[in-house]
Automatic annotation (TrEMBL):
One of its GO terms (cellular component) is cytoplasm. Its EC number is 2.7.1.189. The lineage of its organism: Bacteria, Pseudomonadati, Pseudomonadota, Gammaproteobacteria, Enterobacterales. This is Autoinducer-2 kinase. It is found in: Cytoplasm. It comes from Pantoea piersonii. PANTHER family: AUTOINDUCER-2 KINASE, SUGAR KINASE. The keyword Transmembrane does not apply.
Length: 529
């Protein structure tokens, strides 16, 4: 890593991290250490009489972003002149439309699911082959892509559709609000289903085939490119200094892996948050013949990532804690410890395999036909010594690791890339028992970084590269990551978990059959199914 003559004491970088539920402004020094952060929750807007709609409040959310920037600068006690550069990252799939004057006119969050009928309509194109054509080109299926939403606007809000002159992602909107420059990066725009994995540029033919306008595609710039500078108007609103370089950011997961130093082909990460993502760096773009796994452009030019998702893993743990562990929550408050840590201490005394209890929550990833069974626990007993809170808690941790292992197996089957170790980050990696279980289930070493929420760090690296503070994304990501601990797999436990994984797959398949027969309700189902 090379840096300019600016020193650690007078130069800082800022990342704007726009998540599904909140916006953060995070300040880092040049060594990758977090100095301060401002955070605000935001709420997406359901449109009356539009089921599944979740619009992104452009006016309010820009105010919140500026509030966070000022809050971070105040907390750090830094002048705006000390920020060498700023970049933005965001949830993927969320899109913003602009009119010919460059004014944002409409936006939706990643969770917007209004376009189920349009997904079904698009699937019928080319004798039901259009979705495969989209996937083979872009690595995306239709359910979460931008095309069904654009088609919905054409059907239901033609006034907005006719005005739309440019489309970007939410991270690009933040960069635009700062710099006045409109562009997208491949890592985030790739999730629209309209970007070519091989060329890392738009594929307008896909929009033509869908009967959509292809004249609204904005310029593409790689992550770490300098877009422009903070305008006087943005400086007045945000407290940043006019002229501060604005770098191209990207998608939250891809920048998160950059912040973890996962920048070389074959490297693997499991990101444990509300959703769990299993991410494998591919040496070249390749798609899955079964269409089970999503393929995204990495922020590293020329590299793609196979990404699988476990649904609601962190949310399931929170539900279990809040629904069944009120005593442990009170005890943890008295002891001054985290409730999850207390539950892990209890679960550590439960035998490997949790007495055969089989949780049914997220399935492994099947991107083309993406739905899940009804949440449940299978194979419970009425023996309170075996079937209790600590056993169920351990079973949930084991199940999360099993689903991750299944997803990594799916990636290895089509890509030939099998992980030899993995990086575990996000909130889940704070649990020492969970880390060991993940190592035992996968049978490979697990490394846990010091910085577990690495998305903002990756975004700050992009800002630094754009300003010339750092040389390259990959080199800087590798040099800034620090490791907290490493776990080695237990061979005997691994054998137990292999059998448990096989049993879980069989039981889960039967549970999906109950959903198919309308006897139970799917935990989640993709739009258009």
């Amino acid at each position: 890593m090379s840096t300019s003559s600016a020193t650690k004491n007078d130069a800082y970088l800022m990342a704007l991290d726009a998540g599904t539920g909140s916006i953060r402004a995070v300040i880092f020094n040049l060594e990758g250490e977090q100095i301060a952060a401002g955070q605000a929750e935001w709420i997406h807007l359901a449109v009356p009489d539009v089921p599944g709609s979740m619009e992104f409040d452009l006016s309010k959310n820009w105010q919140l972003a500026c509030q966070c920037i000022r809050q971070a600068l105040h907390e750090a006690q830094l002048p705006a002149s000390s920020i060498r550069a700023v970049a933005a990252c965001s949830m993927r799939e969320g899109i913003v439309l602009y009119n010919k004057a460059g004014e944002p006119i409409w936006a939706c969050a990643n969770v917007d699911a209004r376009a189920s009928r349009e997904v079904s309509e698009l699937k019928e194109i080319h004798n039901f082959e259009f979705e495969r054509e989209v996937y083979e080109c872009s690595g995306q299926t239709l359910a979460l892509s931008a095309m069904p939403r654009l088609l919905w606007l054409a059907h239901h809000r033609p006034d907005i559709y006719r005005q739309a002159a440019t489309i970007t992602m939410i991270s690009d909107w933040l960069a635009f609000m700062l710099s006045g420059e409109l562009a997208v990066d491949p890592s985030n725009a790739g999730t629209t289903g309209m970007l070519d994995l091989a060329t890392r540029n738009w594929r307008p033919e896909l929009l033509d085939m869908a009967g959509l306008r292809a004249d609204m595609l904005s310029p593409v710039a790689e992550t770490g490119t300098r877009l422009g500078s903070v305008t006087a108007r943005a400086a007045e609103a945000s407290g940043l200094q006019a002229g501060t370089p604005v770098g191209m950011g990207g998608g939250d997961v891809q920048l998160g892996t950059l912040g973890l130093g996962v920048v070389c082909a074959g490297q693997t990460a499991v990101l444990g948050g509300t959703f769990w993502q299993q991410v494998v760096n591919l040496p070249k773009p390749v798609t899955d013949p079964e269409m089970n796994i999503r393929i995204n452009p990495h922020v590293i030019p020329g590299m793609a990532q196979a990404e699988s998702i476990s649904f609601f893993t962190g949310l399931t743990m929170r539900w279990f804690r809040d629904a069944f562990c009120s005593e442990e929550k009170l005890l943890s408050q008295r002891l001054g410890v985290d409730t999850y840590s207390l539950l892990e201490d209890m679960a550590a005394r439960v035998p490997v395999g949790s007495w055969g209890i089989t949780p049914i929550f997220s399935d492994a990833m099947h991107f083309k036909t993406w739905y899940h069974a009804a949440p449940s626990f299978i194979n419970l007993s009425i023996d309170p010594e075996r079937c209790n809170k600590q056993t169920l808690f351990r079973a949930l941790e084991e199940n999360a690791a099993i689903v991750s292992a299944c997803n990594l197996d799916l990636i290895a089957e089509f890509s030939g890339v099998r992980a030899r170790s993995l990086v575990f980050a996000g909130g889940g990696s704070k649990g020492k028992l969970w880390c060991q279980i993940l190592s035992d289930v996968t049978g490979i070493p697990v490394k846990v970084p010091v910085v577990k929420e690495a998305t903002a760090l990756g975004c700050a690296i992009a800002a630094g590269v754009a300003a010339g503070v750092y040389s390259t994304l990959a080199e800087t990501g590798e040099s800034l990551v620090r490791w907290e601990r490493e776990y080695q797999p237990d061979a005997a436990n691994h054998e137990i978990y292999l059998l448990q994984k096989s049993n879980w797959q069989a039981v889960y398949s039967d549970q999906l059959g109950l959903v198919d027969r309308a006897l139970t309700t799917s935990m989640w189902k993709a739009p258009g199914l």
